[in-house]
Design goal:
The chain is an all-alpha fold and about 150 residues long. It is built from six helices and no strands. Keywords: Heme, Iron, Membrane, Metal-binding, Signal, Transmembrane, Transmembrane helix.
Length: about 150
C-alpha cells in the first residue's frame, strides 16, 4: 500500500504541468495573441521578484505588466513594439536578457577583458619569480659546511 502511494506521488510530480500565475480573466480570447503574450511575458522580468518572469510571478506589478502586454497586443502592436514600450516605461532592467549593444557592450566585455589582464599579470609574476629562483648561485664550500653543521643540530 505504501509503495502504491509513493508511486502515485512520484507520478503526479512528474506529470504535473508548470503552474503559471496568469489568471483566467487575463487570458485573451484569440489563441494567437495569447501565445504572443506568453512569449513576451517569458522575456520580461518581474520587478518585485527579481529573476522571475512576469508569466510565473504572482506579484501585483507582474499582473499589471501582463495586462499591459495583452492590451498593447490587442491594439495591434508587434512583439518588438510591446517590448520597447515596456522598456521605455520601466527601463532596461525589465528585460531578462539584457541587450548587448551601446553602453551595455562595455559591461559585457569588461569581465573577459579583466580576466585576460589578470591572467597576464599572473603569468608575468610567475615568470619573474621563477627567473629569480634560477639566478641563485650554488653554495660554496664554506656555506655548504655551515649548512651541514646547522642541520646536524
Amino acid at each position: 500500500m505504501m509503495r502504491l502511494r509513493t508511486a502515485l506521488a512520484v507520478l503526479f510530480c512528474v506529470l504535473a504541468a508548470p503552474a503559471y500565475a496568469v489568471q483566467p480573466d487575463e487570458v485573451l480570447s484569440d489563441p494567437a495573441l495569447e501565445d504572443r503574450a506568453r512569449d513576451i511575458s517569458q522575456e520580461l522580468r518581474c520587478l518585485v521578484c527579481r529573476n522571475e518572469n512576469i508569466d510565473e510571478s504572482n506579484a501585483g506589478l507582474a499582473r499589471d505588466l501582463r495586462l499591459l502586454v495583452r492590451e498593447r497586443l490587442v491594439e495591434g502592436d508587434t512583439n518588438d513594439e510591446v517590448v520597447d514600450f515596456v522598456v521605455d516605461r520601466y527601463g532596461e532592467y525589465v528585460l531578462l536578457r539584457p541587450q548587448t549593444d551601446g553602453a551595455n557592450l562595455i559591461l559585457w566585455l569588461a569581465g573577459p577583458v579583466l580576466l585576460i589582464c589578470a591572467l597576464a599579470l599572473a603569468v608575468s609574476y610567475q615568470r619573474r619569480h621563477r627567473s629569480a629562483r634560477t639566478d641563485e648561485s650554488p653554495l660554496d664550500a664554506d656555506e655548504a659546511k655551515r649548512l651541514e653543521e646547522i642541520l646536524k643540530d
